[in-house]
C-alpha cells in the first residue's frame, strides 16, 4: 500500500540532507540515453553517479506526514537528538541542516557575496578606464 509521494533523501556535500521529489532527483542526476557510454568512458561521470546513488535513499511520506531520516544520514548532517535543526525550503525541495552548520553556511554565503560584489565593482571600474 502506498502511503505517500515518492521522495529521495540525499546527503549534500555542504553537510545537510536534501529532500526532493523523485522526479526532481532524477532530473538532477541527469540520466540520458548516453549514460552507459558516459559511464564507460569517464571516471568523473562514474564518480558523480556514485555520489548520487551511494549518498541517496528513496523515502515515502507516512500517513502522518512524516519521513524517517536514516541514522547514517543524521550522522552525516550532524543532526543530534535534542539539538535544533533548520529546514530550508529551496525551489526544488527542502534541506535539513543542523543549526550550527546552517549558521556556518550563511557565513560562507555572505563572504562569497561580498567577494563577488568586490570583483563586479572592480570589473565595472576597469571597464570605465580609457585604454
Task: Describe the protein.
This protein has 131 residues and is α+β, with helices and mostly antiparallel strands. 49% of the residues lie in helices and 23% in strands. It is built from five helices and five strands. It has helices spanning 22-29, 35-41, 43-54, 71-77, 99-128; strands spanning 6-12, 16-21, 56-60, 85-90, 93-98. It has a five-stranded antiparallel beta sheet. A hairpin with a 2-residue loop joins strand 4 and strand 5. Helix 2 crosses helix 3. 15% of the residues are buried. The model has no long low-confidence stretch (mean pLDDT 89).
Radius of gyration: 20 Å
The parts where pLDDT drops under 50 for at least 5 residues are none
Number of E strands: 5
- What class, by secondary structure content? alpha+beta
Kindly report the average pLDDT value.
Answer: 89
Number of helices: 5
Which descriptors would you attach to this protein?
alpha+beta, 131 residues, five-stranded antiparallel sheet, 5 helices
Condensed summary:
By secondary structure, the chain is of the alpha+beta class. It is built from 5 helices and 5 strands, in the order ββαααβαββα. Helix content is 49%, strand content 23%.
Strand-helix topology:
Layout lengths: L5 E7 L3 E6 H8 L5 H7 L1 H12 L1 E5 L10 H7 L7 E6 L2 E6 H30 L3
Antiparallel strand pairs: 1-2, 1-3, 2-5, 4-5
Amino acid at each position: 500500500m502506498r502511503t505517500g509521494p515518492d521522495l529521495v533523501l540525499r546527503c549534500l556535500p555542504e553537510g545537510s540532507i536534501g529532500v526532493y521529489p523523485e522526479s526532481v532527483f532524477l532530473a538532477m542526476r541527469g540520466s540520458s540515453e548516453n549514460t552507459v557510454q558516459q559511464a564507460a568512458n569517464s571516471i568523473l561521470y562514474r564518480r558523480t553517479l556514485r555520489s548520487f546513488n551511494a549518498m541517496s535513499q528513496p523515502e515515502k511520506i507516512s500517513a502522518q506526514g512524516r519521513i524517517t531520516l536514516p541514522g547514517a544520514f543524521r550522522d552525516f548532517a550532524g543532526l543530534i537528538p535534542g539539538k535544533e535543526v533548520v529546514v530550508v525550503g529551496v525551489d526544488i525541495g527542502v534541506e535539513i541542516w543542523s543549526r550550527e552548520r546552517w549558521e556556518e553556511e550563511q557565513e560562507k554565503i555572505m563572504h562569497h557575496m561580498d567577494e563577488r560584489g568586490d570583483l563586479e565593482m572592480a570589473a565595472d571600474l576597469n571597464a570605465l578606464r580609457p585604454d
